[in-house]
Design a protein that fits this description.
heterodimer; A: Rossmann fold; Rossmann fold; 2 domains; 5-stranded parallel beta sheet; 4-stranded parallel beta sheet; 9 strands; B: mainly beta; SH3 type barrels; 5-stranded antiparallel beta sheet
Chain lengths: 302, 153
């Protein structure tokens, strides 16, 4: 896996994904290591991000690597009209690996084809965000002790949620039973359902969250994204569809954990945060371990 | 075998390739895809001809040119039932049908306006995920361009 770019979750086989998760355990046990002391990593964020950018930069720093880059494109040559091709070829001269988020779909694949150094896709528009998928898999594995044969509920915007799409596709390798909870307008697209059907896995669709809570091992809640709606009235009607409260968690499996890719708005009430089944802040921390694992693997140290 | 006298709407060629059963509406697109608009040998074509099978059709005859299958297969996107006839010394030497290829490089635009191929100078690449429905998956943005959205570059 040395020098192998990660653009789309399917670029890594199941075995390679599991290898990343195994290495991440090592960093969870010992987060500060001197592995990247001779390396410069470029962190190119052409659009804003809190968790992804800071967890990458935290991962690099904890491994004693150096970071160069930018957190918005407005004070770079991109503003002067420089092409992505030229930007990547230039920055590849200054770094050993490039982490990139770019709002243009397919930009990460293109960058990985022209760049002499490996690329990690930190999100290309509505297309792919594979490091989120890996940290979600890691969070499921750490809370359930396995990835196999689980009942996983996805709640919220299943139509536009790119983290949902990638995680559903990744979980199709593990005999998952899917419980899909969304407003009718935001159902999981057929292009994603196709993967579930191909593997002959079971899936159930719901519009209300209450009935799935007792059935599942993992409750993966997502935000209904305002920016996806062209009709503000439709958004107003749907935005409060789901609101998980502590008193809804009376009858659950003991091993239930609640995940959320964050940021959240009102789909999980703050009164859930202190519940031992709430896992979303730990999940965000897991992003650092998984990114440490990826950097070490791609640069040839694990 | 009795000799059939058949009036040809387009003159016969001595050597070359005949592309028949092109939908009339796709004729000029096929000419463009095969770069026959800039070809230096004789090219004969006709469109809106009567066809028993298809209602109306177009036909192209290209002198002294024998195509590779991969050159011809891309026209299956617009002319899925086209037949290819190789002519040698005024005789039919070989007759084949076009087949939709597994990959399409260059000729089609990705329908996603936010795809990198519509923003920078990049050759488009697609895999065909369904030959029956002509669904093209973009190698870059991974979105599917369906038949009704296909636009040629």
């Amino acid at each position: 896996m040395k020098n192998k770019s990660l653009v789309s979750i399917n670029d890594y086989t199941k075995e390679e994904q599991l290898h990343v998760l195994e290495v991440a355990k090592e960093f969870e046990a010992k987060p500060v290591q001197d592995i990247l002391k001779d390396h410069v990593i470029a962190s190119l964020f052409f659009e804003p991000s809190t968790r992804t950018r800071l967890s990458f930069e935290s991962a690099i720093t904890r491994l004693n690597g150096k970071v160069v880059g930018f957190s918005e494109a407005s004070n770079t040559s991109v503003k002067k009209g420089e092409s992505l091709r030229d930007t990547i070829l230039t920055i590849a001269n200054y770094s050993d690996l490039i982490v990139m988020r770019n709002p243009v779909e397919g930009s990460a694949r293109f960058a990985s084809e022209i760049s002499p150094v490996p690329i990690i896709n930190a999100g290309d528009g509505a297309n792919q965000h594979p490091t989120q998928t890996l940290l979600d898999l890691y969070s499921i594995m750490q809370t359930q002790d396995t990835l196999d044969n689980l009942h996983v509920a996805f709640v919220g915007d299943l139509k536009y949620g790119r983290t949902v799409h990638s995680l559903v596709i990744a979980l199709c390798n593990y005999n998952t039973t899917f419980h899909l909870v969304s407003p009718v307008e935001l159902k999981l697209p057929s292009s994603v359902k196709m993967h579930i059907k191909e593997k002959n896995l079971a899936y159930h669709q719901y519009t209300s969250m209450e009935e799935v809570i007792p059935l599942v091992d993992v409750l993966y809640v997502t935000r209904i994204q305002k920016e996806r709606f062209s009709d503000p009235l439709e958004f107003e009607r749907i935005k409060n569809s789901y609101n998980l409260q502590k008193d809804m968690l009376t009858d659950t499996r003991k091993n239930l954990r609640i995940l959320h890719p964050m940021p959240r708005v009102n789909e999980i009430h703050v009164n859930v945060d202190t519940d031992p089944r709430a896992y979303y802040f730990q999940q965000a921390l897991n992003g650092v371990y998984v990114r440490q694992a990826l950097l070490s693997i791609i640069l040839g140290y694990r | 075998m009795s000799e059939k006298v058949k009036e040809l709407k387009v003159s016969a060629i001595e050597n070359g390739t005949v592309i028949d059963h092109i939908p009339a509406s796709a004729l000029f697109q096929v000419i463009k895809m095969l770069k026959l608009d800039v070809f230096d040998q004789m090219v004969l074509f006709a469109t809106n001809l009567e066809s028993k099978k298809f209602g109306s059709k177009g036909i192209i005859k290209v002198s002294n040119k024998f195509f590779k299958p991969e050159e011809l297969n891309k026209i299956a996107l617009v002319a899925p039932h086209a037949s290819i006839i190789e002519i040698r010394d005024f005789q039919v030497a070989r007759k084949t049908l076009v087949e939709i290829p597994d990959n399409i490089v260059g000729i089609v635009k990705c329908f996603n306006p936010n795809c990198i191929t519509n923003i920078e100078e990049i050759t488009t690449r697609f895999t065909i995920v369904s030959k029956e429905e002509t669904r093209l998956k973009c190698h870059y943005c991974e979105k599917i361009t369906v038949k009704k959205n296909i636009v040629f570059k």
